[in-house]
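Case 154 in the screening queue. Each case pairs one protein sequence with one candidate compound; here the compound is zinc ion. For every case the pipeline is the same: read the inputs, emit a complex structure as tokens, and attach any notable structural observations.

Predict complex for case 154.
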Amino acid sequence: MRKYVLDTSVFLNQIHPDGVLFTIQEVVDEIRNSASKNYFSNLVQIGLSVDSPTPDSISDVKKMAEYTGDIGKLSETDIKLIALAKTKSATIVSSDFAIQNVSLALELKWISPDRKGIKSLLLWKWRCEACFYIFEKPLKECKICGSSLRAVRK
Ligand SMILES: [Zn+2]
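Case 154 output:
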């Protein structure tokens, strides 16, 4: 059976694929509303496991997210989810474009619970909105003129 790692959007949308299901404790902690909590309990009864990624896979995910430029868009929870998909050789189920993009870069399979998603790998850089200087990493402000930066495709 195919393995899937579920992110928070699965519990909000209440749509899951058939297979061996995993998530992480941080996602469970993010589930607030009672309908999503019930849905989580139902999935646990059909075999959903709460698991943790290996430290190696976490550092691989961080390195790749720095390369693609998604690191600033990913929370620790997002990074751990992708890392668990890598640890388990599982397909990640997420509607988050940054999660999808880094998964794609790591050659992990992913699906979106709302069936929308990115089509191809996006590499990001950051452009100053005032002087148009290009930075390879996300910064709080432009080093040249101090204006704010906008993510643009490489
Ligand atoms: Zn500037």
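Case 154 observations:
- Residues 128, 130-131, 133, 142, 144-145, 147 surround zinc ion (CB under 6 Å).
- DSSP finds six helices and eight strands in the chain.
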